[in-house]
Specification:
The strands form 5 sheets. Strands 3-2-6-9-10-5-4 form a 7-stranded antiparallel β-sheet, with helices on one face. Strands 1-13-14 form a 3-stranded antiparallel β-sheet, with no helix packed on it. By secondary structure, it is mostly beta strands.
């Protein structure tokens, strides 16, 4: 199968693009409106893009409440959606009016952030406190005059991690069981049963070959 993305002549009921770029982490974005209304929404077009400085991005289809609030306030938080919070995450995706607090709608508790005004999800084991760097409108689709998507870049200025998930100087991701978005209405869970480690190759002194050692990671990024 092969198809031209401009014409979407794939012959399928749904565009398969989002079903093949997987898994995608979920950015559970919290923001505060100028009127003081809390907003919480999950975004699957989300990821970290650098660590020095630590930066994350997410993209909004249309000018949703999250985008408007972040442009007005210049800040937001991103909490990690986990298996235990899957139903609450899903409920917070409801396209309710801007006057509705999705924390209440989803039965979640807001917890005060340290560096930004937007709260994090209290039940989530990890949260990133972010300051807006810039927004970028993506090119409009073929035949359209206006962009449909806006990318939000945020610098992470604070990180919250529940101490329960710290083990021997590392974060126990498997114990948190974060969820990720697949295609259509499908999701996946990251757990100990489906995690594995791989050492990076060690390059020979002459730079012409490489080997991979079959042993526990030594803690050095190569």
């Amino acid at each position: 199968m092969y198809y031209d993305t401009k014409n979407n002549q794939h012959g399928m009921a749904h565009d398969p693009f989002k079903a093949v770029v997987v898994p995608r982490p979920i950015g559970w974005i919290s923001s505060l409106s100028p009127d003081g209304v809390l907003n919480l929404a999950p975004y699957s077009f989300f990821n970290a893009v650098s660590d020095k400085p630590p930066m994350v991005i997410f993209s909004s289809g249309g000018r949703k409440d999250s985008l408007k609030n972040i442009e007005a306030s210049g800040e937001f938080t991103c909490s990690i959606a986990t298996d235990a919070l899957r139903s609450a995450m899903n409920m917070s995706s409801a396209a309710v009016g801007p006057e509705i607090d999705e924390f209440k709608l989803a039965g979640l508790s807001p917890a005060a952030s340290r560096f930004v005004k937007a709260p994090r999800v209290a039940q989530s084991p990890v949260a990133l406190e972010c300051r807006l760097w810039k927004t970028l409108e993506l090119p409009p689709p073929e035949g359209k005059s206006e962009s449909l998507w806006t990318v939000v870049f945020g610098e992470v200025i604070g990180v919250y991690i529940d101490d329960h998930y710290l083990r021997d100087g590392r974060v126990d991701v498997a114990a948190m069981r974060p969820i990720a978005r697949l295609g259509y209405m499908d999701y996946a869970v990251v757990g100990a049963e489906n995690m594995f480690g791989l050492n990076r190759p060690t390059v020979s002194p002459d730079g012409k070959s490489a080997t991979v050692e079959d042993k526990a990671w030594d803690g050095v990024y190569r």
